[in-house]
Amino acid sequence: MGRVHPGRAERPVTITLADDELLVAEKFGPTVQGEGPSIGRRAVFIRLMNCNLTCEDCDTPYTWDGARFDLDAEGTVNSINDLLAWATAQPVDLVVITGGEPLVQQRRLVALVQGLVDAGLQVEIETNGTIAPAPDLLTSVTRFNVSPKLSSFGVGMPTSKRIKGRVLGHFAASGRAVFKFVVSSIADLDEITELVANHDLTPVYVMPEGRTAEEVTRRLAEIADPAIERGFHLTTRLHVLVWGDQRGR
Fold this sequence. Notes:
This protein has 249 residues and is an alpha/beta fold. The protein has a domain at 21-179: TIM Barrel (Alpha-Beta Barrel). Helices cover 33% and strands 21% of the residues. It has helices at residues 71-74, 80-88, 106-118, 135-140, 159-162, 165-174, 187-199, 213-229, 238-243, and strands spanning 21-32, 42-48, 76-79, 94-98, 122-127, 143-146, 177-183, 204-208, 233-234. The chain has a 9-stranded mixed beta sheet with strand order 3-1-2-4-5-6-7-8-9. Helix 3 links the parallel strand 4 and strand 5 (122-127). Helix 2 runs parallel beside helix 3. The longest helix has 17 residues, at 213-229. The two termini are 15 Å apart.
């Protein structure tokens, strides 16, 4: 996963969008959801541009890191109608909206999600848990996969930027969220335990960090027993086990 050098900061793409447009990094599939409670399910993905965090180990820095990527070239303006036409033409019933941080664009995202649900599709949104979902989005989404960033993952960011207790509590109370933590070592499990207790987070999944099948498998073996002992669910990164670090898989 790409390293962000000290001093680098996000530079959101500043393209002016109409109310019926979203700034998209890529859309791909059919593939499978590789993480969390829907692991293994056939799905398509819509990855949006921009993020409000600067995680050192981010695996999609091309959505926000203007120091290393030409963000104007990475992002494409898509109309909601075009995204709906693409998604509903796919032979799957699950659409995963990810990023970046999708809720940066949530005002425009509501119409897309509602259109997908009206077409009979299920929708998961992957979020870092720092931006509260709008009421209209909350009632339409099938599930939020909320992934708060641990100190080992968000090196250089203050806790107050990456952990928003009020927002996590809002997700937890919604009944539409699961909490998924990327784990680099057993020590991360203690930080997760504290966050879970402080914000009443449930259900909780822990997932090994890694860009290769070997890394994912090694870390999963290290954290499995300690995670189970703490009452956490386990998930792997199925797409990495199958395709490695290929973009768009």
